[in-house]
Amino acid sequence: MTDKLNTSSPLLDQLRSQAEERLSSTQNDKTKEQMARNGMDELLWKVHAWLEEVARYLNKLTPPVSHKFHFPPFLTFQDLTLEQSFVSYRRHRFEEQDLIKHVEFFYRLKAPHPLVVNLSSEEANEVETKMRVAGLTFEVLPTYDQWKHTQIVQFTIQPEIRSTIRIEPDYVRHNFGFRLSNIDHLEALYMVFSPAQIEEKMLESLIQLMLGENKEFLKRAPWLSHWAPTPAPNASTYRPPRFIG
User: Fold this and answer.
1) pTM
2) What whole-number distance in Å separates Cα of residue 93 and Cα of residue 7?
3) Exposed/middle/buried for 13, CB within 10 Å: 0-12, 13-18, 19+?
4) How many angstroms separate the CA atoms of 97 and 35, rounded?
5) 174 phi and psi, to 5 degrees?
6) Sign of dihedral through CA atoms 160, 57, 66, 129?
7) Could you tell me the sign of the dihedral formed by the alpha carbons of 175, 177, 183, 187, in that order?
8) Which one in 5, 93, 98, 101 has a CA-CA gap of 20 to 30 Å to 82?
9) Cβ-proximal residues to 95 (8 Å cutoff; 6+ apart), any chain
C-alpha cells in the first residue's frame, strides 16, 4: 500500500501550494500592520517633540488666555494666564512591538485671586460634587446656628484650573484619540483623527484653542463627543467599539 502513495500527488501539490500562499499572505499582512504601527509611533514621537518645545516657550511667556470658564450659576474664571506646562509620554508593549501608549500635555490656568462663594447647606453638597468633578481646588468653611445646624457654607476656590490634552493612538483602528479636559470650558471632550490629519497646522490650531484665540481646532475633527470609545487592548482581543461614561 505504502509503495503506491506518492508525496507529490496533484491533490497534495494543490493543498501544499494553497497553504504556502495562505502563510505568505498572513506574514505580509502582519508586516504591513507592524509598519503601520511603527508609522503611527514615529508620528506621535514627532508630536511629542513639537509640543515639548511649545511648552518650553509658553513657560517663558506665561501668555494671557482669552477663555472665560463659567461654573453655573455663580462662578466665572477670567483674566487667566497659562503657566506650568509640560509634556510627558509613556511606552508599552503591543503585539510584540515597543510603541508609545500616550502623550499628555499638562498646564495650569491661573486667575488673579481666589473666588469666594457663600451657599446654603442645601446647595453646598451638589456644588462640592461638581467642583470635584471639574478638578477645582477649594476649601470649605461652614457656619452654624445656636443649635449647631449648618446655616451657610463658604467655599474658597483656588484661582487655578488644571488642564490636560491626552493623545492616545489606537493601533487597531489606526487613528488617534484626543481627550481635551478643561481647555475652553470645564468639561472633557473626546475627538478622533486619522494619521493623515496630524500635521503642523492642526497642532497650531490646538495651541490657538488653548490660548482662546479661536476654535478652529474643534472643526477639524470628523468625530467629537463627551464620551471616549473603549480602546482595543491588542489586535487579538479586538471587539467592535462600544461607549463608556
Assistant:
1) 0.78
2) 43
3) exposed
4) 11
5) 60, 55
6) negative
7) positive
8) 101
9) 33, 34, 37, 171, 234, 235, 236
Q: Which helix (H) or strand (E) holds 48?
A: helix 10-61
Closest CA to 41 of 95, 81, 1, 83: 95
Q: What is the 3-state secondary structure (H, E, C) of 60-108?
A: HHCCEECCCEEECCCEEECCEEEEEEEEEEEEEEECCEEEEEEEEEEEE
The residue among 104, 99, 66, 103 whose CA lies nearest residue 82 is: 66
User: Is the peptide bond preceding residue 73 cis, with omega within 30 degrees of 0?
Assistant: yes
- Burial (0-12, 13-18, 19+ Cβ within 10 Å), 139: exposed
Instruction: Count CB atoms within 10 A of the CB of residue 245.
Output: 5
Q: What local confidence, expressed as pLDDT, does residue 233 receive?
A: 47
Q: Which of 138, 242, 224 is nearest to 187 (CA)?
A: 224
- What's at 115, amino acid-wise? L
Length of the chain: 245
Task: Note down pLDDT in tens along the chain; length 245 residues.
Answer: 556 666 667 777 777 777 777 776 666 667 889 999 999 999 999 999 999 999 999 999 999 999 999 887 778 999 999 999 999 999 999 988 999 999 999 999 999 999 998 988 888 888 888 889 888 999 999 888 778 887 888 999 999 999 999 999 999 999 999 999 999 988 899 999 999 999 999 999 999 999 999 999 998 877 666 655 555 544 433 333 332 22
What are the φ and ψ backbone dihedral angles of 79, each rounded to 5 degrees? 55, 50
pLDDT of residue 125: 86
